[in-house]
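Entry:
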Amino acid sequence: MPEVTIITTCFQASRCIDSTIKSVLSQTYRDFEYIIQDGGSTDDTFAIARSYEASFNKLGIPFHCYCKKDNGIYEGMNNAVEHSSGSFINFMNAGDTFIAPDVLDHIFCKNDS
């Protein structure tokens, strides 16, 4: 079971989903899963998200992408949580990014120095 689940709920986010996914992929900490919950977008959001599946697989990071029409961001968040298995959950909106590639390392790795 991964330590962390990162969840991105989105709708019609084709213009900004790339930056979020790339930021998640850049994390040096690897004990997480990534879930994207698309609320039924009619643009390319879901296709863009799915295009990153091989990149996550190559790093051994569980990646799940779901598309289900919902009644807004909070229902989308709840739908995604139902699929999560991490001990901690981090919600990132489409367009959000981590400030640095080692953010999760700083939070979850013991630093003896």
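The beta strands are 4-10, 32-38, 63-67, 88-91.
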